[in-house]
Automatic annotation (TrEMBL):
Keywords: Signal. This is Tripartite tricarboxylate transporter substrate binding protein. Residues 1-35 form the signal peptide. InterPro entries: BUG (IPR005064), Bug_dom1 (IPR042100), TAT_signal (IPR006311). PROSITE patterns: TAT. The keyword Acetylation does not apply. It holds the Pfam family TctC. The keyword Signal applies. Belongs to the UPF0065 (bug) family. It comes from the Bacteria.
Length: 333
């Protein structure tokens, strides 16, 4: 029989599903565990494979699946600075079987960069909980003449517009972090956007661009392997995986902080009981010593929160990064 003529089994109606879930709840059982064999949990990553979002999703997915008794399938839906994958998650049925790896860029920057965004970071999603904080690392090619952030800034001051920097796309975390640094250091570099973090790093290592300022989970291995040189990290303190690298603040720019953060969200109408179950499972995974060590090896710090605290973080970061976008005149084009 041709593929398009095959009959798929009919899914139960929303009313029927709710009735079944109510029966399980009345019996004191977990409807989600009972349905575990029926459907996998989709974990949408709105970026290509190989970036920080993808690495973190694949780090927590096995433990999350084990905790809820349900397979977790990571799906990459890249494009438009993560907006395509976020829109896909926002319009998914809120039955508790689709979640999104949210990120500073998609939840706090994109609303200011894309004027016709197909989702709202607060109205379209129910916050589940944080996953990790990931410091950005300012890196250059290993053969570049710059040994410190001061070297880079001094050269940029003497040669405005000559240096280039890469990012995973317009409005990406790497783009915004560098724009924030440019504003504070009053320097001029030309932005070269790529379709994802991995190709932006590949071209930096090839010497086709001069710098990038992105997550340590991606660039850390290349720094330790001698292919890139780290000049500064974005957080308030040095990171254990690169202890010799000073912070931007230490390098002459007090108060600078531009770490990335990541967390899980679900479609807005996802039942509160499912959100709480996923939060408890996620926090259990993040506090496992083996996962904490794995994240530390990647340069990431576990971000254990309640759903309410993660939503509050999004609310706080939206106006902060909106101000940077406006000052730097960042657009999606």
């Amino acid at each position: 029989m041709p593929h398009d003529q095959r009959r798929r089994p009919a899914l139960p109606s929303t009313i029927h599903r709710r009735h079944v879930l109510a029966l399980f709840a009345a019996a004191g059982a977990s409807p989600w565990a009972a349905a575990a064999d029926a459907r996998a949990l989709r974990l949408i990553v709105p970026f290509p494979p190989g970036g920080s979002s993808d690495i973190l999703a694949r780090t927590v997915a096995p433990g999350l699946g084990a905790a809820i008794g349900q397979a977790v399938v990571v799906e990459n839906h890249a494009g438009a600075g993560g907006s395509i994958g976020c829109a896909e998650a926002a319009k998914a049925e809120p039955d508790g079987n689709t979640i999104l790896m949210g990120h500073l860029g998609t939840l706090a920057v994109n609303p200011w960069v894309y004027p016709r965004l197909a989702y709202d970071p607060l109205k379209s999603f129910a916050a589940i909980g944080g996953v990790a904080r990931v410091p950005n690392v300012l890196v250059v090619n290993a053969n570049a003449p710059f040994r410190t952030l001061k070297d880079l800034v001094d050269f940029a001051h003497r040669n405005p517009g000559k240096l280039t920097y890469s990012s995973g796309g317009n409005g990406s975390a790497a783009h915004i972090a560098m724009e924030a640094l440019k504003l504070q250091a009053k320097m001029s570099l030309v932005h070269i956007p790529y379709r994802g973090t991995s190709p932006s790093i590949t071209d930096l290592m090839a010497g086709n661009v001069d710098a990038t300022f992105t997550g340590v989970t991606v660039v850390g291995p290349h720094v330790r392997g001698g292919r890139l040189r780290a000049l500064a990290v974005s957080g308030p303190q040095r990171i254990p995986s690169l202890p010799e690298v000073p912070t931007v603040a230490e390098s002459g720019y007090p108060g600078f902080e531009a770490d990335q953060w990541y967390g899980l969200v679900a479609p807005a109408a996802t039942p509160a009981a499912r959100v709480q179950q996923l939060n408890a499972a996620l926090n259990g995974v993040l506090t496992q010593p083996v996962i904490a060590k794995q994240l530390a090896n990647e340069g990431a710090l576990p971000l254990v929160t309640s759903p309410q605290a993660f939503r509050a973080l999004i609310e706080k970061e939206l106006p902060r990064w909106g101000a940077v976008v406006k000052a730097a005149n960042v657009t999606a084009g």
